[in-house]
Design a protein that fits this description.
The complex is a heterodimer. By secondary structure, chain A is an all-alpha fold. Chain A has 8 helices and no strands. By secondary structure, chain B is α/β, with parallel strands linked by helices. Chain B has a domain of about 55 residues: P-loop containing nucleotide triphosphate hydrolases (Rossmann fold), CATH 3.40.50.300. The chains are: A mainly alpha, B alpha/beta.
């Protein structure tokens, strides 16, 4: 792909994202599609998010307990686990799982509609495919990813609690008091802001990849893979940028 | 009136249409013939403003549609209805929902009125019994019928566009679809609804069309009626329509 193509694709992606966002405030609104997508993204991802988060919390707690116990500081496991989960690992890990499951699903569904001329049929009948297909997915992802992140964070903290109390033999009450201490506005804001941005990026990237599908089954495979790959890259990059911005906003020194 | 003027289009440096020019009235019965990948379907997509030419103009009722925005194109797209190859039905919806799709999007009909209209259309096309089946439960012929029903649901188009409407169907079902196409274009010009059928099945084309356009290497190699087609001295075109001569000899 040459530079001209890359710039052209970036421009198309930008236009699609703007149109999808404007679709939120412009009629017609597709409430049925939004509810369907929320069900698919939210309820459909709940189990995988719960499982991934639980084991991440357990593994993190296990590792941190082992390191801190060497220094005689293992009672602070809760604080470090909580902070890592709420600010960083929770939003990123859940967004990555979400991109793998939902992002690939969005790209393949829209891609197969492109190949089957279903999107052309919408356009012929005057239905705007961005409003009908992209906007409901963006709205649903922006609502459901933060909700899943909150549930996933809770599962991770319970996983951490289980390891701290039953494996590392720490006080459960002290673990929760440490968690309570770090639950201030700054940390919660950082943990909740990121999923909104990640959800928006995943939905826009995946829908764009789906809508630009060309060339049969191979094209569909390429679109699905690209959706997951670009979403993953953008989650990691935007996480770094958001962390940097939030640290500057709160006046934290590095 | 549809006018293609010097239309050229290339995909990834492969020229699909090369300076194509023709004009057609909405009441005409036209078959666009040509080999696979020859740019036949591209003509339909250009006509609907789904894609735009690299150069040249496309006029629909005097308006150059290549300069129109997506919102303004709707007015011109409403003059047509298209049935894509294999129907292009929404596979997450059943037959009823597919046919009701446009009625729900763009009319203020109540659900009862929509059901009545859909039922009426399905009865007319002889597929009322399949109303609540999912599209993957339908045969190829039924899928085409549902696609035709959907294309007729919202409005009365001035011209129908059929993209390989009989491809992949057994001869009997293909014959039924041809009868249906004829039925939907009954009447005398200029009052009847015309159509453009894109196909590589010459015998099916001759069952429905009155004018034939043959596309070869992105150019119009033939444009005429059946008599002119029989008398053509273009060797390659004669090979393409050989099936027709065989059929006539058998008769």
């Amino acid at each position: 792909m040459n530079v001209r193509d890359t710039i052209s694709r970036l421009q198309d992606f930008y236009i699609l994202s703007v149109k999808a966002t404007l679709g939120i405030v412009r009629r017609p609104r597709y409430f049925r599609e939004i509810i369907e997508q929320m069900d698919y993204m939210g309820m459909g991802s709940l189990f995988i998010v719960f499982l991934v988060s639980l084991f991440i919390g357990m593994a993190l707690s296990l590792q941190i307990s082992a390191e801190l116990s060497e220094m005689g500081l293992k009672m602070y496991t809760g604080k470090i686990v909580g902070l890592s989960i709420i600010r960083e690992i929770g939003p990123v890990a859940i967004a990555l799982s979400f991109a793998g499951r939902v992002g690939s699903g969005m790209a393949s569904e829209i891609g197969s509609m492109i190949l089957g001329h279903q999107v052309d049929i919408m356009r012929v009948h005057g239905v705007n495919p961005v409003k009908k297909l992209v906007t409901p997915r963006v709205i649903s992802a922006v609502i459901m990813l933060p909700a899943l992140t909150i549930i996933g964070d809770a599962a991770s903290l319970f996983g951490g609690y289980y390891i701290s109390v039953f494996v590392s033999h720490q006080s459960g009450a002290f673990y929760w008091s440490q968690i309570k201490d770090i639950m201030d506005f700054e940390n919660i804001f950082a943990g909740v802001t990121k999923p909104f941005i990640f959800g928006y990026l995943i939905a826009c990237i995946s829908c764009y990849m789906g809508l630009s599908t060309r060339g049969g089954a191979r094209g569909l495979r390429q679109a699905t893979t690209s959706a997951v790959v670009y979403s993953t890259i953008m989650i990691i990059v935007s996480d770094f940028l958001l962390t940097r911005v939030l640290l500057i906003v709160w006046g934290s020194t590095v | 009136m549809i006018v293609f003027r010097d239309v050229t289009l290339a995909f990834n440096s492969k020229v699909v249409l090369d300076n194509v020019s023709f004009q057609a009235d909405f009441h005409e019965k036209i078959a666009i013939l040509g080999g696979s990948g020859g740019g036949k379907t591209t003509i339909l997509r250009l006509m609907l403003g789904l894609i735009f030419p690299d150069s040249g103009k496309i006029f629909i009722d005097g308006q150059d549609i290549t300069v129109l925005s997506e919102a303004r194109l709707r007015e011109y797209r409403m003059k047509f209805s298209i049935v894509f190859q294999e129907g292009a039905l929404f596979d997450s919806m059943n037959v009823y929902e597919n046919v009701a799709f446009c009625l729900r999007e763009y009319t203020k009909f109540t659900e009862e009125e929509i059901e009545q209209r859909v039922r009426e259309l399905l009865r007319r096309l002889n597929i009322e019994g399949a109303m609540y089946l999912m599209t993957n439960e339908l045969s190829g012929g039924m899928q085409r019928r549902v696609a035709i029903a959907r294309s007729l649901a919202e409005c009365q188009p001035k011209m129908m566009l059929y993209d390989e409407a009989t491809t992949g169907l057994d001869p009997l079902t293909a014959d039924n679809i041809c009868s249906l196409i004829n039925e939907l274009s009954q009447g005398e010009p200029p009052d009847r609804t015309g159509f453009i059928i894109v196909t590589h099945k010459v015998t099916d084309a001759t069952k429905v069309a009155e004018r034939y356009i043959y596309i070869r290497n992105g150019k119009i190699a033939f444009d005429g009626d059946i008599q002119q087609m029989r008398q053509t001295d273009d060797v390659e075109f004669r090979k393409f329509i050989n099936e027709l001569f065989v059929m006539e000899q058998c008769r």
